[in-house]
Amino acid sequence: MSLRVYALGFLVVTMGLGVIMRWEFVTGWLTGQGADFQNLRHAHSHAGYYGALTMAWWTVVRVDGLAPSSRAVHLYAACAAAATALFAVIGYRVPTIALSTLIALFWLHGGWRHLRAHLPPRWTDTAPWGLALGAVLVPFIGVTAPRDFALARDLAHLFIAILLFTVFIPAAWQGLGLPRRDPTWLHVVLAVGASAFLVFPHVVGPLGVMFPLAFASWCVLALGRGRLSPVMRLIWLSLPISVAVSAPIPALHAYPWRIAGIHLMVLGPVLCSLAQRVLPRPPHPVLAAAYLLLVVLMNASLVFPAVLPGVADTWVTAVLSTLLLGTAVLAVASVTLRFPWSPPPT
Ligand code: HEM
Hints:
By secondary structure, this protein is mostly helical. It has 14 helices and no strands.
């Protein structure tokens, strides 16, 4: 099986678990049967990061000969699938921590090979640094989790933001062919500073707001240099706008806004760009537009209760996320399966 198939498979599992969790907020059925919601959440977020996004990142670096061999990809996929299944059942325990360590070693090995490759400047150059920082954070999350759940969750969000800003967003930019001219360290410093401020604003201090604002400006510059279609440019503008608007407003650092922000970035610009590497051709424009509309509506419905109480409820998000999953599956199936009416692959 290829990286593309694994990326799509893990994406469907991630989205499927996400939809199950959304309906769980409405019905409470699974927790009533003894399931642990935190475990489901771990399974979901790890399937997304270990599986879908990592495989998609490798489809980009494969061009530079930096993806693992096909045997290593199968082994990695087996570890990621086992970790996802075990997270759902037992949460953070010795077997899932051991599998996660193995996965972190794969990541660090990939980062090490990248550093030694001495390639001309490219956006994926930031990945080794982000992965190393992420690997440093993992033991802190493990140690804090049993004692201080809120702090462990914040540290996990810092980890998620650092990987997003230094590994997966740069991979998406590289996949789109954006040129990189400025030093790697500048992107890493701004990305890590912005992540730290967005998750721990009171620790970083008031001047720390400069980091997200500088990172947002940096993103505008980077996106302005490439030849992107107007639609792709519009989709990517959601990144600097969300970062710059949320940075100075403490209310927008609260949990629902963070969850909406993560999902808007991952399901919107990141996956739409990486899809160009993963799918054999673009889906029908109507399906693509429906998908994007549902991404916006689903994430808006997460924060509506805070802004307009009574307008959106948990079931609205559950219905929208089910429609989103359906649209994504339809879009992928329409370009990957050989329907009798499908046009031949280009
Ligand atoms: C149909 C699509 C999706 C739905 C319905 C969905 C749903 C959810 C839900 C219900 C949560 C828990 C929120 C809470 O506790 O309030 C969550 C958390 C999360 N999701 Fe998703 N998700 C989707 C797609 C994705 C994708 C594609 C990724 C990444 C590749 C992802 C990454 C995450 C992360 C990192 C968290 C945070 C976990 C934490 O706070 O510890 N999700 N998602």
